[in-house]
Amino acid sequence: MQDSSAMFLLHAPEGAAIPLVCDSPHSGVRYPEDFGHAVPRALLRAAEDTHVEALWGEAPKLGATLVEALFPRSYLDLNRTLDDIDPTLLAAPWPTPLAPSEKTRIGSGLVWRTVKNMPIYDRLLPVDEVRQRIARCYQPYHQALAAAVESTHQRFGAVWHLNLHSMPNNAYERLQIKSDRPLADFVLGDRDGTTCEPAFVALVEEYLRGCGYTVARNDPYKGVQLIAKIGQPALQRHSMQIEIRRPIYMDEESRERNANFAAVRNDITGLLKTMAAYFAAQPAWSGSPAAAHS
């Protein structure tokens, strides 16, 4: 396990490695002293993907790499591009061109403006402060994840990446989307079939449905910066976002694990084992599975 100034942890595979890299960019609960937020910490916690790293915690024991952020997404969102900044948050012009996205419009860009429609700050943020967050948090995390993906691909000739999240029960409302469908227990995002091989997505969906969960694809989450950057199926680089509906494993208000947490974690561990068996059957690796595990 690698510690990078306590901003993220890199859990290396334990034992025989498999071509799977997981990352949990939004489950951090360590709030930096320089955050300077004006809303209560309890309100900010609504932005956390709390406990996601624990739900997938068996991944390293099964041979996968797991990268987890330790700081909260409301401080800096790792699943955004570096130009996805709201200029109205800044005390001075940003030194390079900005391209605010729909996420910024609803208050959750690279630096979040609001949480539950409440302004997070009662001040404008100095440009240097935001740039320091990027240098201390964003760049090291992305570099570590990219290195894990690249080394795994080089070793096996293929890599599968899981971008791990959880979603609030009122996700459609949060995203300002009108829907007559209930939110699924799991949402698999592959940016409409562009970032991951269909067979792997189907494997995950079939397994989860077999456990009794409802599953949707790309509704309402398709995946954002991380899988868009990593997912290149034609190059044997497969990337998928997995969202878990929070009430199935925790209390959204208290953030405490509920009575179903252990069962959901066990199901996810079973999913990881199913993935490992799938990888072992793939002919795409540059070496044989036996050689890869040596």
Number of strands: 10
Name the CATH superfamily classification: Zn-dependent exopeptidases
Strand arrangement, largest sheet?
1-2-4-3-7-10-8-9
Going by CATH, the architecture would be 3-Layer(aba) Sandwich
Q: Indicate the proportion of strand residues.
A: 15-25%
CATH class: Alpha Beta
Describe this structure in words.
The protein has 294 residues and is of the alpha/beta class. The protein has a single domain (2-292), classed as Zn-dependent exopeptidases (Aminopeptidase), CATH 3.40.630. 30% of the residues lie in helices and 15% in strands. It contains nine helices and ten strands. The protein has helices spanning 41-44, 52-55, 102-105, 127-156, 171-174, 198-210, 225-230, 261-280, 289-292; strands spanning 2-3, 8-11, 20-24, 65-69, 114-115, 118-119, 159-167, 186-189, 215-217, 237-245. Strand 5 and strand 6 form a beta hairpin. Helix 6 (198-210) packs antiparallel against helix 8.
Task: Itemize the secondary structure elements and their pairings.
Layout: E1 2-3, E2 8-11, E3 20-24, H1 41-44, H2 52-55, E4 65-69, H3 102-105, E5 114-115, E6 118-119, H4 127-156, E7 159-167, H5 171-174, E8 186-189, H6 198-210, E9 215-217, H7 225-230, E10 237-245, H8 261-280, H9 289-292
Which structural traits does this protein have?
Aminopeptidase, globular, two-stranded antiparallel sheet, alpha/beta, eight-stranded mixed sheet, 294 residues
How would you summarize what this structure contains?
The chain is an alpha/beta fold and 294 residues long. 30% of the residues lie in helices and 15% in strands.
